[in-house]
Amino acid sequence: MIYTLTLNPSIDYTMHVSNFEPGGLTRATETDYYPGGKGINVSRVLSRLDIPSTALGYIGGFTGEFIRSALKTEGIEESFIETNQPTRINVKLKDDVESEINGPGPELNDLLQRRLLEQLDRLTSEDRLLLAGSIPSSLPDSFYRTIAEKCIKKNIPLAVDTSGQALKELLDYPLYLIKPNQKELEDLFGEPIDSKEKTALYARKLVEEGCEHVIVSLGGEGAVYVDKETTLFADAPKGEVINTVGAGDSMVAGFLAAKEQHLSPEEAFRKSVACGSATAFDSDLGKRKDVDDLYESIIIHQGGKE
Ligand SMILES: Nc1ncnc2c1ncn2[C@@H]1O[C@H](COP(=O)(O)OP(=O)(O)O)[C@@H](O)[C@H]1O
Ligand SMILES: O=P(O)(O)OC[C@H]1O[C@](O)(COP(=O)(O)O)[C@@H](O)[C@@H]1O
Known about the structure:
Structural class: alpha/beta
Family: Belongs to the carbohydrate kinase PfkB family. LacC subfamily. Belongs to the carbohydrate kinase pfkB family.
EC number: 2.7.1.144
Organism: Salimicrobium halophilum
Number of helices: 10
Bound molecules: adenosine-5'-diphosphate, 1,6-di-O-phosphono-beta-D-fructofuranose
Pathway: Carbohydrate metabolism; D-tagatose 6-phosphate degradation; D-glyceraldehyde 3-phosphate and glycerone phosphate from D-tagatose 6-phosphate: step 1/2
Largest sheet: 11 strands, mixed
CATH architecture of the largest domain: 3-Layer(aba) Sandwich
CATH superfamily of the largest domain: Ribokinase
Strand content: 15-25%
Protein name: Tagatose-6-phosphate kinase
């Protein structure tokens, strides 16, 4: 079973505006709200691809109830731990450019932390775990490390989609998959990375540090894939971009789904890009039919082994 862990879920509240005026009144032309948080997005896309998963993490209050019922409607297993504070609402402002404001997350005491670690103790080497998104500020920065230690000891393949210090710290472990975006890769290495070739070079450093599969997403420019044997470049397909929130998470889901179906790295990468772009072209996460339609149109170029 694939388990997705979202320590800090959210409702993503998307507001479409034109000419947002800081300090003034702006009326939104359209609003949407979706269950969010990186692992939850991955579970939702996996489910659209007919791959079951179980969503783990902390939820609470009326916002948490919304997430629970949305996942139930979509037939997604969850085993969330309840907190006494409402799950955060993250605001996604769509004007000519997209801006995001993400909340800090709930207070999680020792008991809640222990309950999650006990849940994870029940995973076996037959399972896979995805650690996704930010660590709420009340948890120690080392929380993902604690989880990683346990998983690696038990040979549980670990996929990671997070950023900043949390990502840096996890690179000490042999990870199954990581998917930084361009900014996250630049932050990791403290350098501007402005071409696909340079992206591949830095992605290869991550492979050399022990990551089995590295995908770097580059928004409208597509993505780069590196493993021990291969370097691949994908162009993003053209289409009307509606909402890129969750596009990166969709890539992770696409890759994990394809590997569950024993597809080759190239096919898995293709599926990953198709999922990312299907989401970018939708107001919610991409739909199965759109992923299938985009799949064949993704152009993949082979790179050298830098
Ligand atoms: N403007 C776009 N046009 C087409 N596809 C896009 C666009 N923006 C994002 N995507 C798709 O979504 C993937 C992930 O996007 P990106 O913005 O890099 O991820 P993240 O959400 O993690 O920042 C890209 O690799 C691409 O497949
Ligand atoms: O935990 P973080 O880093 O605050 O990120 C949470 C946000 O990331 C998302 O999962 C979207 O992530 P991506 O756009 O990177 O795929 C949103 O649903 C959510 O609001």
